[in-house]
Design brief:
The chain is α/β, with parallel strands linked by helices. The strands form four sheets. The chain has a six-stranded mixed sheet, sandwiched between helices. Helix 13 crosses helix 26. One of its GO terms (cellular component) is Golgi membrane.
Length: 756
């Protein structure tokens, strides 16, 4: 379904999410702050012309610029407003009827060199109905008057934004006796006349008077809350003012979560080059495929009539098959990236704002938990945090995080705090997994490092190019990448202490603990020294990776939020492997981890700790204060979960294959959601099928999961080709990759220069 003209949808259609949140059809509405409104309207002149309803809209609009404004003064006269700090002028002109006086005022802006307002908002009708007692003659005169004004408004529309506000319905039961003649039937007749006459002489022109009809829809839902049956409640007026602000400012400010009235961003040089690369890959793959098919036909097995044996076709050379796999992978990736671009950069599909309700978060959680328990199988091994168990852990956490994102649950603090623990648990696994590998294997070779870095970063680098986003935008990948390098650096620097060496002499264990203490001290120093942290990551070219909106503050905040949990993961791995080596734990199938008494005590403590943390997180009142405590206390719930999951032997011996399947593609799911499940860089929701929210989620989720799975396969295939085991070949590949990134930095600098 094509997104269409989002400006037209913004002004004409939508629905309420809950009681107060307005959702325009097909696009997202940004909630403007005072500072943003001022930046947009600097040196602008805005005029509101009309009756008391327009005056209400005027006040709601100027409160977006200055919330301290009070509605005072004579209501039936002109009201000026000026913000000198931003040179903004907003005037209300009292013209309660569409008549000669209003025409004269509008005409004055079309003549000579008179400064024209940048935005003109006009609307009136209820006074005409009231004064003339709802007579048909008044409606006829209204049509004549609006016919004379329409060409002037259309002329102004060529240089200004002109809005004609249709009349809102009334709540007839609440109207006073003096207003009883103002009926919804009369209002509809006046609105019909205005819509028919306006733009009648400029049907094919781009410059048109914008008919502001969305106010009618809003009023239909809220007019019964009106104080007098005629004027809208304050929340509805504020919504109308915000719609006006979005209609004018989105194309200027370009907010991420304001897709209404925002033009499609132009293709950058890097995006064009990426498009050419993927196109050439597809052409190359098709050519090779055709050549292979042609060769296959020529060498097709045929029976030798004399010997009765089959002649086998020639076997393809390995180099050709590798090239074919490379081109095939890039061809598939190109198609997938096209879908990414169409979903979140082209104005092809609709986008909607998130709206949180408890049911939208908790019902899907219960549903996936039931599914996960249903698909239970026996594990191949019964060690603590075995591969199947960690995949399961990643899987259910990722599904919960996905539901958290699409439901907009970040606005509910208890849920936010629990999700922070899930993100910390991912990083805990990073510390645990990489430490365990280096400690047991002692493999500090370049091949291992390159394999990990490639698998972590390949998709994000491609998305940075295709979607024109900085590396730090996909914050989780930079986070795990930097922590992997910190783990590697800590263990690889002299002296390299591994399990094999430590088994020969217990002093090496103290040496490793000393290394870990030094790491903890560095983490502590950087977390409380923002200046030092920012200096490290502000050096070029690191700054190109970690800057967001011109500074590295976001990166410092993200790193600081879970600063200790990777260290906790490394320390847990060290203690667990030491206990395992000394056979102090029992990991047999069905056996408790420790003796029955110790297991029961630890299990009780773990359950109490788990629940205590949840109670504390649920009672959080201030996000900033809770975020300060989170790095130190998140490990409590993580360790409690690990012990609950592993102490009982029967629990450790089973896993959910459903969750484990998602766990294997958890990184791809986390990154892909930004653009093809959510929308507007996670701020909204992608709408492939409008009007059917549940069906839309099912369809977009199916495509999203399939794409994530396919990208995981592509990454694995390319990792084998791009990062070979042979050191000399690997060195050549690394030089090529370095050249690629140098070119990327050069083109990026050219782009930045052209933008400025």
């Amino acid at each position: 379904f094509k997104g269409g003209d989002t400006c037209e949808y913004l002004l004409s259609s939508g629905r309420f999410l809950g009681e107060k949140v307005w959702q325009p059809h097909s696009c997202m509405m940004h909630k403007y702050k005072n500072s943003e409104a001022k930046n947009c309207l600097v040196d602008k002149h805005i005029v509101f012309i009309g009756d008391s309803r327009i005056r209400q809209l005027f006040y709601s609009f100027i409160k977006l610029i200055n919330p301290q404004v009070k509605e005072e003064g004579n209501k039936h006269e002109n009201i000026p407003f000026e913000d000198k700090s931003a040179s903004i002028k907003v005037d209300f002109l009292w013209y309660p009827e569409v008549n000669g006086s209003m025409r004269q005022r509008i005409k004055s802006w079309t003549e000579g060199s008179v400064a024209k307002p940048h935005i003109i908002v006009v609307g009136a009708a209820t006074w005409s109905i009231k004064i003339h007692n709802g007579s048909n003659e008044a409606l006829t005169q209204y049509k004549i008057n609006i016919t004379s004004i329409a060409p002037l408004l259309e002329k102004l529309a060529k240089s200004s934004d002109v809005y004609w506000v249709l009349q809102d319905p009334v709540y007839e039961d609440l109207l006073s006796d003096s207003r009883k003649m103002i009926t919804n039937e009369k209002i509809d007749a006046y609105n019909e006349a205005a819509v028919r006459i306006l733009n009648s002489s400029s049907r094919n022109s781009k410059a048109k008077v914008k008919v502001f009809s969305v106010s009618k829809l809003i009023a239909q839902e809220t007019i019964m809350k009106s104080a007098d049956g005629l004027h809208l409640p304050e929340s509805s007026r504020d919504t109308n003012a915000m719609i006006l602000m979005n209609g004018y400012c989105n194309k200027i400010m370009k907010p991420i979560d304001g897709s209404c009235c925002q033009p499609e961003p132009p293709l950058t040089l890097i995006q064009k080059l990426a498009f050419c690369f993927f196109t050439l890959s597809a052409i190359g793959y098709l050519i090779i495929n055709l050549i292979h098919r042609n060769n296959f036909r020529k060498n097709k097995s045929c029976t030798d009539l004399e010997s009765g044996e089959e002649k086998k076709p020639a076997i393809s050379t390995p180099n050709v098959s590798t090239l074919e796999m490379l081109l095939q992978s890039f061809c598939k990736l190109g198609l997938i990236m096209t879908y990414f671009y169409l979903c979140d950069r082209a104005n092809l599909f609709m986008k909607e704002n998130k709206f949180y309700t408890h049911s939208s978060f908790f019902i899907p959680i219960v549903y996936i938990l039931v599914l996960g328990v249903f698909y239970t199988e026996n594990t191949k091994e019964t060690k603590v945090l075995n591969r199947e168990q960690t995949d399961e852990w990643k899987g259910w956490m990722q599904l919960v995080i996905l539901i958290y994102h699409i439901s907009g649950a970040s606005t509910f603090l208890p849920v936010y705090m629990h999700i922070r623990v899930l993100v910390a648990a991912y990083l805990f696994q990073t510390g645990y997994g990489h430490f365990s590998y280096f400690w047991i294997k002692g493999d500090f070779g370049v091949y291992r490092v390159c394999q990990v870095l490639f698998r972590l970063n390949f998709l994000v680098v491609v998305l940075c190019i295709v979607m024109d986003r900085p590396y730090q935008f996909y914050y989780f990948v930079p986070l795990v990448t930097v922590w992997f390098m910190i783990i590697y650096g800590t263990l690889a620097i002299w002296p390299q202490i591994v399990q094999k060496k430590a088994n020969g002499n217990c002093l090496w264990h103290f040496g490793l603990l000393l290394k870990l203490i030094c790491l903890l001290m560095c983490i502590y120093f950087l977390s409380y020294s923002q200046g030092a942290f920012e200096k490290i990551f502000s050096f070029w070219p690191l700054s190109k990776c970690f800057e967001l909106n011109g500074n590295v503050y976001e990166w410092w905040f993200r790193w600081k939020l879970d600063r200790y949990v990777v260290f906790h993961g490394m320390l847990f791995a060290f203690i667990y492997l030491a206990l395992q080596k000394r056979q102090m734990i029992s990991e047999g199938k069905g056996d408790p981890l420790f003796s029955n008494r110790v297991s029961n005590v630890l299990l009780f403590i773990s359950i109490v700790s788990f629940l205590t943390y949840s109670i504390w997180a649920s009672s959080c009142k201030n996000k900033t204060e809770c975020n300060e405590l989170h790095p130190s206390v998140s490990v409590v719930q993580i360790l409690a979960f690990i012990l609950i999951r592993n102490i009982p032997g029967y629990v450790r011996s089973v896993y959910s294959s459903f969750f484990a399947w998602f766990g294997k593609i958890s990184l791809e799911l986390f990154i892909c959601q930004y653009h093809i499940w959510l929308a507007a860089d996670t701020k909204g929701i992608l709408v492939l099928i409008p009007g059917y929210p549940m069906f839309n989620v099912l369809v977009s989720t199916f495509i999203f999961v399939c794409v994530a799975h396919e990208i995981s396969q592509i990454t694995n295939d390319l990792a084998q080709i791009v990062v070979p085991k042979d050191n000399s070949t690997l060195l050549k590949r690394l030089l090529c990759i370095a050249g690629f990134f140098c070119g990327l930095l050069l083109f990026s600098a050219m782009q930045d220069q052209s933008r400025h």
